[in-house]
Specification:
heterotrimer; A alpha/beta (486); B mainly alpha (101); C alpha+beta (494); A: 486 residues; alpha/beta; 13% strand; B: 101 residues; 3 helices; binds magnesium ion; binds zinc ion
Chain lengths: 486, 101, 494
């Protein structure tokens, strides 16, 4: 039976539940049903929660007793499997954590549950979020619901495919170099990477700590606003979380676009940009102009160095973040007679090749004699990239451009050459390096029916501007209302 | 900055990173690393003004500090639940000799 | 003469021992450096851990304010420059008692920058030395590995200690003898305990020390340096002195035999073995780890404000050296006594001050404390806090002496009685039958002595006043309560 709620946005589902026209149990059951019928095929979920139906019933009972059920109203949410859920296996897509059951919840999970959201299950990802296609998961690749020959993007490809495949109306992802926006773009949904520090990283299994950020994924910008409002905010358990007042991002969702200064970045429209993507982006910019945006040209002169900077900073941090997987305290260990062998065999057997390569890259770049040339130099260029944004945001409120240079690529096509895979991040990594918020919204389809995403980048903590701009765009367009035919 | 990485260096790095790779994997890693290093070496040509401060991603904050207050620890059975080898009191690992500090 | 013979004939005056120290001090906080687990010592293994200090995936550290304050306080006590910006770095290495695979430490912006500490020896065994402190930085402790206890031959890991705050204090190589190094450690410990940042309990590992040592030798009109050796595990001050002395001698002999200098050999790490009373090789520096320090992206650099520093400065306790000067200046103690009292810790100073004020005689208070009180504490291996006689009790006893109610010798008996029976001064005096002797009784006693000892009296009359001692001894037998001072005076009058 097809999911009867497939065409609804999360905000619409909330209204149905609040008005009594559907129960949380109805909604959760429908999405569970879709997982049952589609997940074997798409492989978007690694684990499904065993008690989500119970939780739905409890929420329905609360509502029938007239109690508040929170802004998320008992709707189901897919959580990326790199985010810890108490009592629910959390693998980070790695053999290393195949049986890891966290004794604690990530702050974002606590918060979405507090807001009445229900963890439906854990979505697939590239191992330790290292990848851009979700092909690097120990638990098999996820497929793109729009075309099963194509990747869903990554690393939050499972989360994106859950939403696009109508297996969950909302999903939580994490974004280190584009891992929310690029799969959102590939899967025709909306995904927001918040400002660094906006959402607590406590409980997010670290890939690159200074770049990682948790964010919402959904069909619409309005849904992202709903979910972000639930999970955002200062967390004393995360030193890097920002003590900046949070807001209900739905409050300003109807803010008009007119008067907003929209910067078109010249560096985003060079060689390597797919012509269909370029066309869709140009048309989207026209929509913004029609809505009254003041479109200008801006330059981010160091954006060409962003991918190289990223591929030093991220592996350096990762090499250290992944040192804790040593076979001593969790899940699995290789058979060995000496400690040294136990370490080296466990890490050789339980990390995938991409993770091993990045660990080695980071280890090398941090090692004695290379630190200044790599990590220090990259951190300086990172400052230049940030300065570029600071200067651009003196001129404009938002920077608009493509999320990715091409639509989703075919499975397996980028696995042999790391650089071609990394270049899929070319427009997204800068926001992580600079710590600014950015959103990807659907803005078209290729001739072969693959979704195309538009990226908006904003000033630190300007999430509501990104969301309202996205929402106003979505009121004029229907790309976010398309569903893949299964 | 850097010459493409040689196999010997890759072996040393693998040792430092505690990765016991077989020869085929070592060769593969070596070529992948070489390819990536070749790409990232473009940073060499990026001019950085004198005295520019590196940016490590986080902004300063006064709130990133906590009071010295004791919070409950995890029950020991919780602690060992995920562990591949423990005796109920201690984690167990293959015998170790030399130590660092 | 062969070059070896030449080296063997080098004069000891031409050999300078060069020592620098690294001291790890556990700061006295309630909770760990980056999580809320208790720092209490001695609990069952792995009962003081949480997702943060076990390094579970996804967990994050948050710095303990008090640890930072104690580090700043220590820095101020050591005249260190306090950093206005301090940051956290990761020191990467694998070890099973290091859960995250890295230690959070401070690399290039330590909380405390250069400072100094002067040590001197009242006995003059070494010259007064001002030791430059290079830096002091905060870092988290590792857990404990236990080897050889497990029946299956595994090593056992206890993570209770993991994440406990340590301050690593590093000196410049300014010490010139093992004795001076020991004195430095003693003075450092004294300062740390006076300002209350650490209990410095070495049995519990709350103060650990490593030393770097080599020799500078004037030889053939040039100065030759022997290879630097780092000695680990010097787990008591006495052992530190022994290990350094052993190592100095070993380096001299090794150089004499081989002629190997700092240019020819890398830095070596050796460990002090208590049982062998020798240092043994732990590892050569070539095989040492590459720690790949880099800024910890999970922690934010800390800005330390002037007002925070001045608040800590204004609450800084008086330091041991100031107390010595105070006891010498305001209480007229000699340097030796002042050093003894101060060296026993702040509580003994307070005890002294109370007794001196109460009895009105600092010298007397000092004598009683350094002789009676400290002897007892030493014999019983107790702290002053556990001394059974409060300052008020000792004051009462000394006042009896000052008012002639009792003599010094009997007062010591009273003190013993007070301690052994747990009773007051008066009760102890009663128990010992000590009563005031009235004037008439004393008069009669003296007359009796004169009559019974004509020979002694004759000696005294001839000017041999020392002979009077014999009479005082006899007076004691006749009446133990007779005050020997008064007896002496009266006899001289007769
Ligand atoms: Mg250290
Ligand atoms: Zn803890």
């Amino acid at each position: 039976m097809p999911n009867e709620f497939a065409s609804y946005s999360a905000v619409e589902l909330c209204r149905l539940i609040e008005s009594g026209n559907a129960s949380s149990l109805d909604v959760v059951s429908s999405f569970l049903g879709e997982i049952e019928s589609s997940n074997d095929d798409v492989n978007a979920m690694i684990s499904v929660s065993e008690n989500c139906l119970e939780t739905a019933k409890a929420i329905d009972n609360k509502r029938s007793r007239g109690q508040s059920i929170g802004p998320l109203c008992g709707i189901p949410i897919a959580v990326k499997d790199g985010i810890c859920t108490k009592g629910l296996r959390t693998t980070a897509g790695s053999k290393m954590l195949e049986t890891f059951v966290p004794p604690y919840n990530a702050t974002s999970v606590d918060r979405l549950e507090l807001a009445g959201g229900i963890v439906l299950g854990k979505s697939n990802l590239d191992e330790f979020a290292m990848g851009g296609s979700t092909e690097r998961s120990y638990f098999k690749p996820t497929l793109n619901p729009w075309s099963k020959d194509h990747v869903p993007g990554g690393s939050s490809g499972g989360s994106a495919a859950c939403v696009a495949g109508t297996m969950a109306p909302l999903a939580i992802g994490s974004d280190t170099g584009g891992s929310i926006r690029q799969p959102a773009s590939f899967c025709g949904i909306t995904g927001l990477k918040p400002t660094y520090g906006r959402v607590s990283r406590y409980g997010l299994i670290a890939f690159a700590s200074s770049l990682d950020q948790i964010g919402p994924m959904a069909w619409t910008a309005e849904d992202c606003a709903l979910l972000l409002s639930a999970v955002a905010g200062y967390d004393p358990r995360d030193s890097t979380s920002a003590n900046v007042a949070t807001e209900n991002y739905l409050d300003r969702i109807e803010d008009p676009i007119s008067g907003l200064k929209l910067g078109v970045c010249t560096e985003h429209f060079g060689d390597g940009l797919d012509s269909e993507v370029e066309k869709a982006i140009r048309e989207a910019i026209d929509v913004f102009a029609d809505l009254g945006a003041d479109v200008k040209t801006v330059s981010l002169p160091h954006s060409a160095s962003a991918v190289a900077t990223y591929y030093i900073v991220a592996p350096c941090e990762a090499s250290s973040n992944l040192a804790r997987y040593d076979g001593v305290r969790y899940t699995t260990r290789a058979v060995a007679d000496s400690l040294e062998q136990m370490y080296s065999k466990t890490r050789a057997e339980c990390f995938g090749t991409e993770v091993q390569n990045r660990i080695m890259l980071g280890t090398y770049a941090l090692s004695s004699g290379y630190y200044d040339a790599y990590y220090l130099k990259a951190s300086k260029v990172r400052r230049l990239i940030k300065n570029d944004f600071d200067a651009a945001f003196e001129e404009v409120d938002l920077i608009v451009g493509p999320t990715t240079p091409t639509p989703a690529f075919e499975l397996g096509s980028n696995l042999s050459d790391p650089i071609s895979m990394y270049l899929a991040d070319i427009f997204t990594v800068s926001a992580n390096l600079a710590g600014i918020p950015a959103i990807s919204i659907p803005c078209g389809f290729s001739k072969s029916g693959l979704p195309i995403g538009l990226q908006l980048q904003g000033r630190p903590f300007a999430e509501s501007t990104l969301l309202s701009a996205g929402h106003q765009f979505q009121k004029q367009t229907d790309f976010h209302q398309q569903r893949p035919s299964s | 900055m850097v010459q493409p990485i040689d196999l010997e260096t890759v072996k040393q790095v693998a040792k430092l990173a505690k990765l016991e790779l077989d020869d085929a994997r070592m060769d593969e890693a070596s070529s992948q690393l070489g390819r990536i290093l070749e790409y990232v070496n473009q940073l060499e040509s990026v001019e950085c003004p004198d005295g520019i401060e590196p940016f490590y991603g986080v902004v300063e904050s006064k709130d990133a500090i906590r009071e010295d207050a004791v919070a409950p620890s995890l029950p020991r059975n919780e602690v060992f639940k995920n562990s591949p080898d423990s005796d109920g009191e201690y984690y167990r690992v293959p015998k170790v000799l030399d130590r660092e500090s | 003469m062969t070059s070896q013979q030449k080296r063997e004939s080098v004069n000891l005056e031409d050999v300078t021992v060069v020592i620098g120290l690294e001291v790890h001090v556990q700061l006295q906080t309630e909770s760990k450096l980056f999580c809320g687990c208790s720092t209490q010592y001695g609990n069952p293994p792995n009962t003081q851990t949480c997702v943060v200090c076990v390094g579970l995936p996804g967990s994050l550290p948050v710095i303990n304010q008090q640890a930072l304050n104690l580090a700043i306080k220590t820095g101020l006590a050591l005249d260190c420059q306090i950093a206005r910006h301090t940051k956290w770095d990761r020191k990467n290495y694998f070890y099973p008692d290091l859960p995250k695979g890295y230690q959070i430490s401070q690399f290039d912006q330590p909380i405390c920058g250069p400072g100094e500490l002067t040590v001197s020896d009242p006995k003059g065994k070494f010259e007064s030395t001002t030791v430059r402190i290079e830096r002091a930085h905060l870092e988290e402790d590792a857990g404990k590995s236990i080897h050889g206890a497990d029946s299956t031959g595994c090593s056992q890991i206890d993570l209770n200690r993991t994440g406990t705050p340590l301050l690593e204090i590093v000196t410049r190589p300014d010490l010139r003898s093992p004795a001076a190094a020991k004195a430095f450690l003693q003075e450092l410990k004294l300062i740390l305990t006076y300002i209350g940042v650490s209990d410095c309990n070495m049995q519990q590992g709350n103060l650990r020390c490593d030393g770097n040592i080599n020799l500078h030798i004037n030889f053939d009109d040039q100065t030759i340096a022997t290879p630097i050796v780092e000695i680990k595990n010097m787990n008591s001050f006495r052992n530190a002195e022994r290990a350094l002395a052993y190592e100095a001698q070993r380096q001299l002999e090794s150089w004499q035999l081989t002629g190997v200098t700092i240019e020819d050999a890398p830095k070596q790490t050796r460990g002090w073995s208590d049982t062998k009373q020798a240092t043994t090789v732990q590892r050569e520096k070539e095989e040492s780890a590459d720690y790949r320090y880099f800024p910890d992206p999970d922690l934010i650099s800390v800005r330390v404000s002037e007002s925070e520093i001045s608040a800590i400065q204004s609450n800084l306790e008086t330091l041991p050296e100031s107390w010595r000067q105070e006891l010498i200046g305001s209480h007229q103690l000699n340097a030796y006594d002042a050093n003894v009292i101060v060296g026993q810790g702040r509580e003994v100073v307070d005890y002294f001050l109370a007794v001196a004020a109460g009895c009105g005689n600092s010298k007397m208070a000092c004598n009683w404390i350094t002789q009676e009180v400290l002897r007892y504490l030493n014999e019983e291996n107790l702290d002053i806090d556990s001394y059974p006689i409060p300052a008020s009790g000792l004051i009462e006893l000394l006042s009896k002496i000052n008012t002639g109610k009792i003599d010094q010798t009997r007062a010591k008996e009273v003190l013993e009685e007070m301690i052994s029976s747990g009773i007051s001064v008066q009760a102890a005096m009663d128990a010992l039958g000590i009563q005031p002797v009235d004037e008439g009784e004393l008069e009669a006693l003296c007359q009796q002595l004169v009559l019974d000892n004509p020979a002694v009296i004759a000696q005294i009359r001839d000017g041999n006043t020392k002979a009077i001692g014999a009479l005082i001894g006899k007076s004691r037998k006749l009446n133990p309560n007779a005050n020997p001072g008064i007896v002496r005076e009266k006899l001289l009058q007769l």
